[in-house]
Specification:
mainly alpha, 84% helix, 0% strand
């Protein structure tokens, strides 16, 4: 997800606010994607 999409999703008006959360959000997205891949591989 691009930073602008993330900013809009989080409802921030200032991109600097979003940048504070970017790493946390990215690692969470990676975790969710890995879990989804495991589920898909079992199907």
């Amino acid at each position: 997800m691009g930073i602008e999409e993330l900013r809009a999703l989080m409802g921030h008006t200032n991109i600097q606010t979003t940048l504070r959360y970017q790493k946390v959000t990215s690692s969470r997205a990676e975790e969710v994607a890995k879990k989804a891949l495991i589920i898909l591989e079992k199907s």
